[in-house]
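worker-03 picked up job from queue 'complexes'. Input manifest follows; three sequence lines, order preserved.
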Amino acid sequence: MLLSDFTVQNVAAGAALLGVTSGVLGAFAVLRGQSLLGDTLSHAALPGICLGFIIAGSRHLPSLLLGALAAGLAATLLMFLLDHYSRLKTDAILGSVLSVFFAVGVVLLTWIQGQAGTAHGGLESFLFGQAAAILRGDLLLIGSITVAALALVSLFLKELKVTVFDPVFAATLGYPVALIQAVMTMLVAVAVVVGLQLVGVVLMAAMIIAPAVGARQWVNRLEHMLLLAAVLGAVAGVSGALVSSAQRGLSTGPVVVLVACGIAFFSILFAPGRGVVWERQNRWRSSRRLRTRQLLTTMLRLSQEHSDSDYATEEGMLNAYMGLGTRRALRRLESDGLIKHVVHMPEEGSHWMLTGAGREAAERVLRELGRQ
Amino acid sequence: MAGGSGRLGKGVEPAVRHEPDLAVHVEDLTVSYHSAPVLWDIDLDVPPGVLAAIVGPNGAGKSTLIKAILGLIRPAAGHVYVLGRRIGSVRNRVGYVPQRSTVDWDFPTTVIDVVMMGLYGQLGWIRRPGREHRRRSLAALAQVGMEDFATRQISQLSGGQQQRVFLARALVQDADLYMLDEPMAGVDATTERIIIDLLRQLVARGKTVLVVHHDLQTVTDYFDWMLILNVRVIAQGPVGEVYTGENLKAAYGGRVALLRDAGTKPAGK
Amino acid sequence: MIEAFFNNFELMIVLTGALVGIAATLVGSFLVLRGNSMLTDAISHSIVFGIIVVWLLTGYASGPVQVVGAVLTGLLTVWLTELVAGTRRVAYDAAIGLVFPVLFAAGVLLINLYARDVHIDQDTVLLGEIGYVWLNTVTVLGYRVPEAVLTVGAMVLVNLAFITLFFKELKLSVFDPGLAVALGFAPGVLSYVLLGLTSATAVASFDAVGAVLFIAFAIVPAAAGYLLTDRLGRMILYGCAISVASSIGGYTLAVQWDVSISAMMAACTGIFLLAAFLLGPRYGLLGRVLRSRLSSSAGGDPSSGKLAP
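worker-03 finished. Artifact:
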């Protein structure tokens, strides 16, 4: 069985942790309208990782991750300054920080590569994700970071909730809104740190967004959304890890992302109550209902105007009135026993007449409409 | 003394109270944005227990004034005392109802959850709301006629209902001063009636209510005190004295000079 | 003389960088103004998908076929993003972050499966190295010229022609899309052409600077220009000037420290942005802080208070 393989276990566990952190921590970014923070902070991590490597002298994971976090902090501060003290819009700030930090990272990377004699292998795995590089010891570190972050979120859930939902109101309550927002951004940096090794710089963006977006389609409370996002993220992570292990030559990161985004798209389309497909069906059903009601009331009114309770309406008139073919709707009404087909004159078209039940139904609809 | 109460959270508060008899005391308040003043030399004294309207044309700075009083904006000059103190130390006694459009209504939360947010300030850090807080929130919802909607997702509400939820969120704090920003703009007649009845009840219980109001026609019906604002104070005081053609023309009749000159003195403060 | 110009190894590198910067800034300025900066990010990454698909279908790893493929991929990315955002279940930026990673991931997997040993590898696409522009040369009128100079130079001309011809339409569609529609300027079509040109510029630049550094050239100089002036034409001009300066400065520093030249050029754009942010004459932070200090001691200029968020 796949899972009995040691490496696969590592990868699956790492992927599960990635899924959980990016799902939960990413949810706040998505709800704040800062979905692409994951993209920016993952690119911004590169110089930090390189600095960590330079200082530690080798691929010492805690140093690399600390460096990534420090770079994330620097990026957060810079984005804050640009946001509050310049007229740059959010997207330009995100894009600028993303590309410039990454550029600095590449500068450092090439500097490291130019240093003869340093064992710089493995740094590139941070760019593109290399699951096999995950060691069991790494898992311990990443796991503790995950636990700490989740504990933080759980303790301060209501503070985070009110700051995201209504920051101005939160300020009137006395909360240090800017600080809390900075912390939320740093949480995304933490998620990036946890997941970067697995999916790489480019794909991290999707991991921050997809589980949260998927979860949102199914539930309506923040607490539930966070839980579901964690689950969806973990599912995507583990299945991606297993699939890529089963099939030779597939990188893990891309598979995980495809699963996560697939889940998100599926949720967007098919979630009950919110899904696009569901809504379309609902709209179709209610427009069908509307059409049959209209037909009933039209036929009733016509029979009233002709002062003939047995008035039989010609189908052509109904088509003209409704502006579209009514045969199917009429058949439905007939099978419900509300109208019946009558033969008026052999050479004229189909005629339809209200039954007693149909008359009552039509009167009921008119009463409802009158009340509205 | 330059610089208003710009720091959020609790500062070091001396025991001295300033203008304790006034609900709101503003002196020399000036707020500017980029290169033009939005509020200029505002002196405002709101007595306690009034149902007060703040009116003025678009861009007059009415919302800005509310935000400056609440300490959400740092002024270029002047200072603000609320209930005799700096805003930082009386936050729990001030309830704020913002304009409806500031929030993402697709946020995953229920009506009662939003109302309970009004109590977060009293709960402090980390503590979760308990049964008592839930009960008080339901009571606040009942005051605005929305108790049946408690577990409804907020995106399912109509405009007027959303407004009432915001109102309940402020009411649950049981504050001494309420500040509302255009609460009746764009709501149906029923909601407007509910809101104004509620505000009257609050005043009857001794609270002070300050409302940025959008509709000049109803000022005399609803309010007993008013401030006419257009970047600077045009007039303030009891509605009967202030609501005059001359004052309204001074405010709404085009550009307002920031400094008085001999011929165009507006009505006195 | 001309021969000396084209044979000057260093000059050609700097020229390539400058051309990339100018071509990118010409289109990037409008994207920044429209709030679409992150679309350059999306397009740059998803182009990997286009490159591998085109290669699988036609066997060409570069050239005009790839340019066409890149344009199509870029437009596909935007179209899919709008489709996802159009469901209204997802915000626009979230849609961006769902679509381009899928394309990029698909591209990487295709490379994994079918193109392991081809030179299209992630490193070069994402990072690029401008020093290598001399590996591909083309002979024009008897002079040996780096191919990149020609392709990017062509993009500069095409982009310049486009924004010159449609300057007022572009301006209007940025500031008042509703009016643009009413006047019949088809801002939607204009928008897609703009993004198509961005994609073409991106792939033309890849050999030189790689995907992510292209993003820097497309956004950062334009953003800096935005901080320096209120006039659109000047903003583009300043942006181009900063691109050229970054190219020169970046090359010099990179050679000194023996690091990636293209990355250093991109990093320099960041330095200019920081400078514009701090020292810009009208909007610069230092200027505003000093002005407000001066005014409070002089007692009475209301024109400089800062608003807390």
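worker-03 released lock.
The first strand of chain C starts at residue 137 and ends at 140.
Strands of chain C lie at 137-140, 143-146.
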